[in-house]
Write a structure and sequence with these properties.
With 148 residues, the protein is an alpha+beta fold. The chain has helices at 20-31, 91-103, and strands at 12-16, 34-35, 39-40, 47-52, 58-63, 84-88, 108-114, 120-125, 131-136. The protein has 2 domains: 12-63, 2,3-Dihydroxybiphenyl 1,2-Dioxygenase, domain 1 (Roll); 84-136, 2,3-Dihydroxybiphenyl 1,2-Dioxygenase, domain 1 (Roll). The longest helix has 13 residues, at 91-103.
Length: 148
């Protein structure tokens, strides 16, 4: 039996990177995030930012002087977190963000497209190769639609 007396929220998701400032700037510029002041631990070399988005969701990006090299899998599905999703209000906003990211040199991996479960979305990669989705919560036939 689940205990509903405790309301759980997703506080944040954390990502390791060896390009802390580049990733911070990416999420500020393209997704409207607001960073906190950088935390630095001089004993361990750990540096982090929490980036807060309009919904209240947070992304923690972290670095250490020595991180193991991890080759990102671009084929999905694979085990583990597969993407971060950012929501916008309309299909036109999905299209606009896709064009902005593509014009800035970020690949559009898939889409924009309608999904079978009622979303309109595209997928891209951030500077570290993490998969990012931009999506509408739902779509209607009255919204503008590009050819898929």
């Amino acid at each position: 039996m689940e205990d509903k007396s405790i309301k759980m929220t997703l506080e944040h998701i954390a990502v390791w990177t060896d390009r802390l400032e580049i990733l911070k700037d990416y999420y500020i510029r393209y997704f409207g995030g607001t960073p906190n002041q950088k935390y630095s631990n001089p004993q361990t070399g750990l540096e982090t930012y929490f980036i807060t988005f309009a919904s209240g969701a947070k992304l923690e990006i972290m670095t250490l002087p020595k991180l193991a090299d991890h080759k990102k899998k671009t084929a999905i599905p694979y085990k583990g977190i597969t993407h971060l999703a950012f929501g916008v209000d309309t299909m036109a906003e999905v299209d606009k963000k896709a064009k902005q990211l593509e014009a800035s040199g970020f690949p559009i991996v898939r889409g924009p497209r309608k999904t079978g479960d009622g979303f309109y979305e595209f997928e891209t990669l951030d500077p570290d190769g993490n998969r990012i989705e931009v999506t509408t919560i739902s779509y209607t036939d009255t919204q503008s639609q590009p050819a898929v």
